[in-house]
C-alpha cells in the first residue's frame, strides 16, 4: 500500500519552540525577581516543576514526536497523556501566575490585573475553578477527540490539530487545578472529595482504553492510509495505545490519590500536641508578666 499523508503538516516545531522558550524566560525572570524579595513564595522545587511542565508541552507538540502522531495512534496517545496528565499538573505546581506577573512587562500586568477585577472575569474564574467543571471539561474533551470522525477531521486539518492539542492542555489545567491548589501548602486541608474526584476521572479513561484494547476492528481507518501499514499492524498499534493510556492514567491518579489519602489518614503525635499547648501557655504567661 502506498504511503499517503493526511493533508497538510500537523506541527509547527519552530514557532511552538519559540513560544515555549519565551514562556520559560518570562517565568524564570519573574521567579528571579520574586526570589530576591520573597524566597519562600515560589521555592526552587516549584520552579523545577514549572519548567518541567513547559518541557513536557514541547515534547508533546514541538519535538519529533509530534511528526509521528499521524502515523501511530500510540504517538497520539503519548501526546494526549503528556499534555493532560503530566504537563498540566507540573505547570500548576510551578505557580505560573505568581511568577509570570513579575516577569511580564508592567503595562501588560496592569491590564491583566484590571481585567481580573471585573465582575465578568470573577464570575468566569469562579465557575471554571469548580471541580465539577474541570471534571466535565476534561471528560468531554477526552471523549470528543477520540470519536473516529472528529479525530479524522483533526488529522486532515492543521488548524483543528492545533485546537486539539490546545484543548487537551487547557482542560488538563482545569482538571488539575482543584487538586493542585490543595497540595501542598494549601490554606485548607485536602478533602476526601479529591480522592473520589480522581477515582471518577479514571472511569472514562478505563472505558476508552478497554474499547481500544479489546476491539477486534480498526477504530480509526485514517491510520491505514496515513501509515501505509497493514490492518493487523494498525490494530496492534491501537491496542498498544489503549494499554498505554490505561497504565499511565491509573498510575498517575493512583499515586496522587494515595498521597491525599496518606495525608488525610496521618495521625498527629499527641506528645507534640501537648508540647505545642504547653509552649503557647508559657508564651501567654510571659506576655502577661510583661
| Uncertain segments | 1-10, 185-189, 269-290
Count the DSSP helices: 13
| Residue share in helix | over 70%
The domain tally reads 1
Strand proportion = under 5%
Q: From the structure provided, what is the oligomeric state, counting identical versus distinct chains?
A: single chain
What is the radius of gyration?
Answer: 23 Å
Largest sheet: none
Given helix and strand content, the structural type is mainly alpha
Average pLDDT, to the nearest integer?
83
Total strands: 0
Helix-strand pattern: HHHHHHHHHHHHH
Shape: globular
Measured between the Cα atoms of the first and last residue, the distance is 91 Å
Element layout with pairings:
Blueprint: H1 13-37, H2 44-61, H3 73-93, H4 96-103, H5 106-116, H6 119-128, H7 131-145, H8 148-156, H9 158-180, H10 192-214, H11 222-227, H12 231-265, H13 270-289
Helix pairs in contact: 1-2, 1-4, 2-3, 3-9, 3-12, 7-9, 7-10, 8-9, 10-12
Give your account of this protein's structure.
The chain is an all-alpha fold and 290 residues long. The chain has one domain. Helix content is 77%, strand content 0%. It contains 13 helices and no strands. It has helices at 13-37, 44-61, 73-93, 96-103, 106-116, 119-128, 131-145, 148-156, 158-180, 192-214, 222-227, 231-265, 270-289. α1 packs across α4 (96-103). It is globular and about 60 Å long. The model is unreliable at 1-10, 185-189 and 269-290 (pLDDT under 50).
